[in-house]
Amino acid sequence: MTPATTLPTEIRGPVEVLWNYHDLHHDPQPTDIGVGLGSHDLSVATCAAALYHRGLFPRIVFTGANAPTTIDTFPRGEAVHYREHALTLHVPDAAILIETTARNTGENITRTRDLLTTHGITPRSVTLISRPYQQRRAYATCRKLWPTVHVRCASLPATLDDYIASIGDADRVVSMLVGDTQRIWLYAERGHAIPQPVPDNVREAYRELTHAGYTSRLIT
How far apart are CA 103 and CA 85, in angstroms? Predict the structure, then answer.
């Protein structure tokens, strides 16, 4: 069955609540390093290249191995494919480092930090580039695991509908949104991230969408 590429009307309200919650809307500012977090979404590398060309950081680290959701799309690893895409966007090879072993956001952060240390780089500030709905989780994770750096978050600008169209699967995007929402409080409880405020409307939107069956990305 071909995935639906448009959002069902009956869940638009709660999906928009979660979409807006996870995008931190940070204004782009210069930082020491850009870090592209591996995923199924090549727009992360596109965004990293665009910010590099704007002069917002002098070097990019792409980090990511593979996950079940990316092995078919990026068989050589997320970071490797991100690097190759950035090169087509005229980012100099000398400006790119890759970290090819991380399998989750926590490892993206800690292994990027360790990689930079081996290159004699100790940044004071980083821009985390991710999918729009990963921003809050990435921020909270970085603040916990790399507390010495100032963190900015960025994603390629897109409306919810445009993003779903670019991925080509509305159910997948909604399920990922729901999963990332659960991880905000669950990872804080487990000590993997700093706590984040979770407004009542976000908790209600999460409940509505889990009751509607968008549970494939939940941690049980």
Answer: 20
Q: State how far the Cα of 49 lies from the Cα of 116, in Å rounded to an integer.
A: 19
Contact indicator for 68, 78 with CB cutoff of 8 Å:
no
Nearest to 62 by CA among 130, 122, 119: 130
Contact 7, 170 (CB under 8 A): yes
**Phi/psi of residue 61, nearest 5 degrees:** -110, 125
Q: What is the pLDDT of residues 130-185, one digit of tens each?
A: 999 999 999 999 999 999 999 999 999 999 999 999 889 999 999 999 999 999 99
Please give, one letter per residue, the 3-state secondary structure of 178-216: HHHHHHHHHHHHCCCCCCCCCCHHHHHHHHHHHHCCCCC
Residue 15: name the closest of 196, 188, 184, 163 by CA: 163
The answer to whether the predicted template modeling score (pTM) of the entire model surpasses 0.85 is yes
| Spatial distance between the Cα atoms of 2 and 18, rounded to a whole number of angstroms | 25
